[in-house]
Write a structure and sequence with these properties.
about 230 residues; Mannitol-specific EII, Chain A; four-stranded mixed sheet; 9 helices; 6 strands; globular
Length: about 230
């Protein structure tokens, strides 16, 4: 990186692409960047958001597999991420008693704080709401993938995921106006692991039987078992 930004070569290394591929993406306006003195520069925060949005738009499992593999290849901890292992039972709320975006976020963060791994719930709540203001995380399948804009290792003892389900769908910013009833809260301590977690969770969501069954289950034990069982099929 140069002055905190990526150049062509640095971004190519980060994305596990060739410099020529990155240059083509930049020249075609497919990746966020700007030219400074005739040279491309890329903001790490903008690239992180671009990757999140790219993962969220992928609907085919083979594309998500490729994305997850690409992220794993450049990770310092290349082992598999297991979504079920990241969800403590205390961080599961079914039913989630909330009817607005703010109350959903507060309830999800409160549940995460019960694990003892979240040291500053208010800071996380504000960061998650700021991320939702910038770009809603609601998907067209009735699921929202809540998270702050960047990982927050200073307030977390370890990475974790929370899950909540409201009794009925609520407006949560879906571009198509789809109501949201299932909420995952991703609390990460490292950027690339966050993206890998997002890609793997997105793969689970593409399994046809997963969401209908998830919407029927009541107990944390059943929910964790179903997530783990589905994950084993990937």
């Amino acid at each position: 990186m140069n002055g905190g930004d990526y150049d062509i070569d640095g971004l190519a290394e980060y994305l596990h692409l060739t410099p020529q591929q990155v240059l083509r993406l930049a020249d075609r306006g497919k990746i966020p960047g700007r030219k400074v003195a005739g040279r491309w520069r890329f903001s790490p925060s903008e690239i992180h958001l671009w990757l999140e949005q790219r993962i969220g738009l992928l609907t085919e499992d083979e594309d998500l597999v490729a994305m997850e593999s690409q992220l794993r290849d450049r990770c310092t901890s290349p082992g598999e991420i297991r979504i079920a292992d990241l969800i403590p039972p205390e961080a599961i709320q079914v039913p989630l008693v909330a009817r607005t975006r703010n109350s959903v976020v507060r309830a999800m963060v409160d549940a995460a704080s019960r694990t003892g791994w979240l040291w500053d719930p208010e800071a996380l709540r504000e960061a998650v709401l700021a991320r939702e203001e910038m770009h809603p995380t609601a998907l067209e399948n009735g699921v929202a993938l809540l998270h702050p804009r960047r990982p927050m290792p200073g307030i977390l003892g370890q990475a974790l995921i929370g899950f909540g389900r409201t009794m009925s769908g609520i407006p949560f910013g879906s571009e198509a106006g789809v109501l949201t009833d299932c909420f995952f809260l991703l609390c990460s301590v490292e950027e690339r692991s966050h993206l890998r977690t997002l890609a793997r969770l997105s793969r689970i969501l593409t399994v046809p039987a997963f969401l209908p069954r998830l919407r029927e289950l009541e107990s944390p034990k059943e929910i964790l078992s179903w997530i783990g069982e589905t994950e084993m099929q990937l």
